[in-house]
Design a protein that fits this description.
3-stranded mixed sheet, Serine Threonine Protein Phosphatase 5, Tetratricopeptide repeat, repeat, mainly alpha, 3 strands, single chain, Ankyrin_rpt-contain_sf, ANK repeat
Length: 435
């Protein structure tokens, strides 16, 4: 080797020692080192023989004992320790740590070896490095913390990372925090750990909207249940939107699965000072009908009126809008629903019969749409007149924006000394026609 230029480099900057180390040629690497080859001469990527030789433990030890820099930085500011994690070389990984390689060095992207182990989802190396971590608040160039990475990758150490000081409430940006990351990468155990210490953060949408719109449908029930069981419900109800939740339940194959949860949510929604919207009451009626505790709660509360076309498709409009006479509802709303939405109109069949002439284009009315046309029974007429008379007599009307007449009407019915069947008819709990 005396006549060989042992440190000569190829066009990419590779030396004979670097090539021997990369390909696992121990004897050749040893001879090159004995001949005086530079163990720290890097190629154009700033990779030293130790960077490329980490897949071969015997060569790694040879290079270290020959003076290789343990924390040499390549073009990404990554040390050989990073390479052992990337290549899943546990033996050389442990060897470098034993020789005191720096376990907290930052790469160009702000990633530490512990972060690299989390991203690589190497749980063995994660557990090794956990004891070496000095800063659990470290952030990548994109702002992702150690905890954020642990949530979005396979990592069994989330609870331990929090116990050692990681901040559950650190936001990367308004819509990216530990909460939203738990939705994007669902995991019940991780969410349970995160939520118990989570505090309200202002986001572009309410937390419940994030849950029902981002989270996989299969996890929504369990996530909300975890929130209730934790006792930490303040963040959820700080800016709770009831309608997105109800629309989600409505879209499920079996909404009754959510019945008890919906009841609890409405209780809490009202306890936190929120006021029901007319569209929300209509949605509750569509989900569970009138003969439920959920609907009774809604009808005994103030309701904020906001125009929503969907409110014209349900009987709930008659229940909460005491300013609307039954005759108006039958003449203007039912024909409109009958013309455009037969399925919704079928829900009126047990309660109403309308004049065929009220329909805008009666000659277009298909035979299957004539089920609501007919002469009202005396029972229906009596119910309609009695309901309108009570409201007019005692002035159970509402303001332009807030509906409170319905709760007065239903409280009055409860106090009337009449048979229960009569109360049920006047409150539309009891149909007057057989379907």
């Amino acid at each position: 080797m005396e006549d060989i230029q042992i440190n000569r480099q190829t066009y990419p900057g590779d030396t004979p020692l670097l090539l021997a180390s990369s390909n696992g040629h121990y004897d050749m690497a040893k001879k090159l080192i004995e001949a005086g080859c530079d163990v720290n001469l890097a190629n154009v990527k700033q990779q030293t023989p130790l960077h490329v030789g980490i897949r071969h433990p015997n060569i790694t030890q040879l290079l270290i004992e020959s003076g290789a820099h343990l924390d040499a930085l390549d073009y990404c500011n990554e040390t050989p320790l990073f390479e052992t994690i990337l290549e899943n070389c546990l033996e050389t990984f442990c060897m470098l740590l034993c020789y005191n390689a720096d376990p907290n060095v930052y790469s160009e992207n702000g990633i530490t070896p512990f972060m690299k182990a989390i991203i690589s989802e190497n749980t063995d190396m994660q557990e090794f490095l956990l004891e070496y971590v000095t800063d659990f608040h470290a952030r990548t160039a994109e702002g992702m913390t150690v905890l954020n990475l642990a949530i979005t990758h396979e990592c069994p150490l989330v609870e331990e990372i929090i116990r050692r000081g990681a901040n559950v409430n650190y936001p990367v940006h308004p819509d990216l925090n530990t909460f939203s990351l738990c939705l994007r990468v669902p995991n019940l155990n991780k969410f349970r750990v995160i939520w118990k210490d989570f505090k309200y953060q202002k986001m572009t949408m309410s937390l419940i909207r994030f849950i029902v719109e981002i989270l996989d449908d299969a996890y929504v029930y369990d996530y909300i249940q975890i929130i209730f069981e934790s006792g930490n419900i303040d963040p959820l109800f700080e800016d709770f939107e009831l309608l997105p939740y109800l629309e989600f339940v409505k879209s499920q194959p079996n909404p009754m699965v959510y019945f008890e949860m919906t009841l609890d949510i409405i209780y809490l929604y009202l306890c936190y000072g929120h006021i029901l919207l007319n569209s929300e009451v209509s949605c509750v009626y569509d989900l569970y009908g009138h003969r439920t505790d959920v609907m009774r709660i809604c009808l005994h509360m103030d309701i904020r009126y906001m125009y929503d076309v969907d409110t014209t498709k349900t009987l709930a409009r008659v229940l909460y809008d005491t300013d609307l006479k039954i005759s108006q509802f039958k003449k203007y709303f039912i024909p409109l629903v009958l013309e455009y939405d037969v399925d919704s109109a079928k829900r009126f069949e047990p309660y109403f019969r309308i004049n065929r002439d009220w329909i805008k284009y009666p000659y277009r009315l298909d035979p299957e749409k004539q089920f609501l046309c007919g002469v009202p029974s005396l029972l229906e007429l009596s119910r309609n007149k009695t309901r309108d008379y009570i409201i007019k007599k005692f002035r159970f009307y509402s303001s332009h924006t807030t509906i409170y007449g319905c709760k007065l009407y239903f409280l009055y019915l409860n106090c009337l000394n009449i048979p229960k069947i009569c109360k049920d008819i006047l409150s539309f709990q009891q149909p007057v026609y057989c379907s």
